[in-house]
Amino acid sequence: MYSKFDYEWRIFIVRSLMCYLVLSLILKSLSWFQTRSPSKAASMFSGTQEKCATCGKTAYPLEKVTVESQAYHKSCFKCSHGGCPITPSNYAALEGILYCKHHFAQLFKEKGSYNHLIKSASMKRAAAASVPEA
């Protein structure tokens, strides 16, 4: 027969093992939760790290237009010459500057080449690089 001390000691050991098992299961589930990658559906709604090429702010999936691996807000995706709204089917880009097809053709007809557009694009880039970000 077991003494009262042996009985209490065995109960203590069993309870300790049960606590250990429960805690280890909790820790395993927490580590699984922290290391698993989000699903495609979750990543669509959790936001994005893509920044708008025009304004530099976050472009969320419902409000973005992606063209030539650049993301834009729908409101930022407009002609740099006339400011008219453009779509992926009616735009032209030269040196990263967006134009509607109408203004792009018009600017070519003015000078007979795109050299003046390339110069203005490089000046815009230089001006943007010299302005410190807030």
UniProtKB/TrEMBL annotation:
<keyword id="KW-1133">Transmembrane helix</keyword>
<keyword id="KW-0812">Transmembrane</keyword>
<keyword id="KW-0479">Metal-binding</keyword>
<keyword id="KW-0862">Zinc</keyword>
<dbReference type="Pfam" id="PF00412">
    <property type="entry name" value="LIM"/>
</dbReference>
<dbReference type="GO" id="GO:0046872">
    <property type="term" value="F:metal ion binding"/>
</dbReference>
<feature type="transmembrane region" description="Helical">
    <location>
        <begin position="12"/>
        <end position="33"/>
    </location>
</feature>
<keyword id="KW-0472">Membrane</keyword>
<comment type="subunit">
    <text>Interacts with F-actin.</text>
</comment>
<dbReference type="GO" id="GO:0051015">
    <property type="term" value="F:actin filament binding"/>
</dbReference>
<dbReference type="InterPro" id="IPR001781">
    <property type="entry name" value="Znf_LIM"/>
</dbReference>
<keyword id="KW-0206">Cytoskeleton</keyword>
<keyword id="KW-0963">Cytoplasm</keyword>
<keyword id="KW-0009">Actin-binding</keyword>
<dbReference type="GO" id="GO:0051017">
    <property type="term" value="P:actin filament bundle assembly"/>
</dbReference>
<keyword id="KW-0440">LIM domain</keyword>
<dbReference type="GO" id="GO:0005856">
    <property type="term" value="C:cytoskeleton"/>
</dbReference>
<protein>
    <recommendedName>
        <fullName>LIM zinc-binding domain-containing protein</fullName>
    </recommendedName>
</protein>
<feature type="domain" description="LIM zinc-binding">
    <location>
        <begin position="50"/>
        <end position="110"/>
    </location>
</feature>
